Amino acid sequence: MPMINVLKDFLATKGVETAYQFHKKTGLPQATAYRLYNKRNVYPDQKTQEIVCRVFDVQPGEFLRYEPDDIGNECSQSDKKPTRRTKSSTTEALFAADEPSNLVRKVA
Hints:
Layout: E1 3-5, H1 7-13, H2 19-26, H3 30-38, H4 46-56, E2 64-66, H5 89-94
Antiparallel strand pairs: 1-2
Helix pairs in contact: 2-3
């Protein structure tokens, strides 16, 4: 899991010690505040990030952290070449393989 919600640790530095205090300070729905406060694998949506940033005058990087899960992997996802598409069986059926030119359409 590359993204980690470190909101609870961040809030502790701001003097917010409970999910209830976080809920009251930000005005977020109580369920949202509790879920974000207690679960590191839950990420705030853009609107929620804006609220937290505005209330605490911070950037999202202060309460979200990126940690790649495949450290030491030789080839990252972005380095992989996209796979090439092959002709569909429908296209192959339309053209005769035994014809001198593959531009001749096979009549069914």
